[in-house]
Specification:
Helix 8 links the parallel strand 4 and strand 5. The chain has 2 domains: 156 residues, HAD superfamily/HAD-like (Rossmann fold), CATH 3.40.50.1000; 77 residues. It has 245 residues and is α/β, with parallel strands linked by helices. The protein has 10 helices and 6 strands; from the N terminus they run βαααααβαβαβαβαβα. It starts with 5 loop residues before the first strand and ends with a helix. Helix 4 runs parallel beside helix 6. It comes from Mollisia scopiformis.
Length: 245
């Protein structure tokens, strides 16, 4: 069994409770786009979240464009991407909270110094850094160990594309066998699975009635082991290290 040396954490709704705040801002912009195209449909934050969870804003805009079959130039898309980033960061700085129980685990990992810790997200780097700084988690992750599919790659993409995981491992000089990822969405779990990384699926950020459904979604997407609460993290990691999953 290769030794696990590195833990790769998704950010949104895995480390911090950011998705509902972010999707509030996304919905405002998505509705503005639909309105400007005379498309009568409108989204609330939760509707957008259930349809596009785990995708970054750029990926969402591409999906919306395909769904409603309208045109959008690259320049217009970039304008919206920048505006979305600004609006989301403003909301996060006002209201963001950490996921329940995660700080205790990060503190423990930091004290033990057994693993190296990195963040691997679909969201823009500015947003990810603003998020972990707001809740005081930035002290656990070296500045250059925060990776974004929207910013860190030559060609911006979004999970479920595994590119950001492959890039992070290459940058950190790690193999998939020595890494474990933690993901809460289908697209994130799929990205890690495609990068051949054993993944812990986390359902604690979902409403109680959603958790059972998401457990199945994450297992189907390739998660090796599931946790509903961060207090289960150590046990999940142990199962992977012992080769039980």
């Amino acid at each position: 069994m290769p030794k696990i040396t590195t833990l790769l954490f998704d950010c949104d709704n895995t480390l911090v409770l950011s998705e509902s705040l972010a999707f509030e801002a996304c919905a405002e912009l998505a509705n503005e786009i639909l309105s400007s195209r005379d498309i009568p449909d409108r989204y609330t934050g939760p509707q957008l979240l259930s349809e596009f969870v785990g995708q970054n804003f750029r990926g969402m805009m591409v999906s919306l464009k395909a769904k409603y079959k309208y045109e959008m130039s690259d320049a217009e898309l970039e304008t919206y991407v920048t505006r979305e980033e600004d609006q989301v960061i403003k909301k996060l700085k006002e209201k963001l909270q950490p996921c329940a129980g995660v700080d205790k685990e990060l503190q423990k990992l930091d004290q033990e110094k057994k693993y190296e810790l990195a963040v691997v997200s679909s969201s823009a780097l500015r947003r990810v850094r603003a998020s972990i700084e707001k809740v005081g988690q930035d002290k656990y992750f070296p500045y250059d160990w925060v990776f974004s599919a929207a910013t860190s790659l030559e060609k911006p993409t979004s999970k479920p594309d595994p590119a950001i995981y492959l890039h992070a491992m290459k940058t950190l000089n790690k193999t998939a066998e020595e890494c474990v990822a933690v993901e809460d969405s289908k697209s994130g779990a799929t990205a890690a699975f495609r990068a051949k990384i054993k993944t812990i699926g986390y359902t604690g950020s979902y409403e109680p009635e959603e958790q059972e459904k998401m457990k199945k979604v994450l297992v189907d997407a390739g998660c090796a082991v599931m946790m509903n609460d961060w207090s289960e993290f150590e046990g999940c990691l142990e199962k992977i290290e012992k080769g039980e999953v």
